[in-house]
Amino acid sequence: MTPLSTFPVELTLTGREALVVGAGPEIPARVDRLLDAGAVVTVIAEGEPGPELRARAGRITLLERAASDADLEGKAIVFVEPSQTPEGEARARRWHAEAVRRGTLFCAVDRPEACTFVNAAVARLPGLTMTFATGGRSPALARRIREDLEAVFSDPRFSRFVDRLGELRAALPRGGRAARMAEAVRGFAIEARLAFPGWFERGEDPP
Fold first, then answer.
1. Domains of the chain
2. Cα(5)–Cα(117) distance, integer angstroms
3. What φ, ψ does residue 131 adopt, rounded to 5°?
């Protein structure tokens, strides 16, 4: 698969309408990211919403029904978890075409060909936010990398280090910041190695 050509940005969604369609296990985390960004979130649960979604009912509009084309109206960003049916696939393609026409941000989960943007993985830690993507080729790999990076940067010393750097930067005059800050981080490094699954190392096909 050819990676999607993208231009990475961070969106300001405060007060803007967001729509999430689906009730799968990844939906609550997606909803939380939108809420953290200040979006006004509507979730249409096509299927039984789990306890995690129901627990967010006070912060979102939770609708237990099938989604319709009218639900796109007025939405700044839309995430759809397509059902594994011809009808679900057809709707994802139809909504994608409509989103392109309207200029709406649209993501059909695990359907990069039916998205107007790449849904990058996000690792949020005290003092640091990292986003990364595989150009739509393997969201599972991006998620795995996110999990490992979150484990590495969860070291409590890191947040203290960032705080100290922030204090130093605030105390320095603007003209002298760059050199002093570069010196302050000189001893910091990330020491890591890559490990690959056995089938890949042996040159075999994936299981």
1. 17-119 (3.40.50.720), 161-186 (no CATH)
2. 9
3. -125, 140
Residue 17 in tokens? 């309408």
47-56's contacts with Cβ under 8 Å and 24+ in sequence apart are: 47/22, 47/23, 48/23, 49/23, 50/23, 50/25, 52/28, 53/23, 53/27, 53/28, 56/28, 56/31, 56/32
> Which pLDDT value is given to residue 193?
87
* Helix locations, 18-155, DSSP H: 27-36, 51-55, 86-102, 139-153
H or E element at residue 177: helix 177-184
Task: Give SS3 for 21.
Answer: strand
Compute φ and ψ for 63, nearest 5 degrees: -115, 125
Question: Residues 121-125: contacts with CB within 8 Å, 24+ apart?
Answer: 121/145, 121/146, 122/33, 122/146, 123/149, 123/150, 123/153, 124/36, 125/150, 125/153, 125/154, 125/158, 125/159
Helix (H) or strand (E) holding 182: helix 177-184
Write a three-state SS string for 112-129. HHHECCCCCEEEEECCEE
Residue 205 pLDDT > 50, yes or no? yes
Q: Could you tell me the two tokens for 18?
A: 């967001």
Q: Determine the Cα–Cα distance for residues 206 and 189; give it in Å rounded to an integer.
A: 33
Entry pTM:
0.72
Q: What is the pLDDT of residues 46-86, one digit of tens each?
A: 878 889 989 998 899 999 998 888 999 999 999 998 776 78
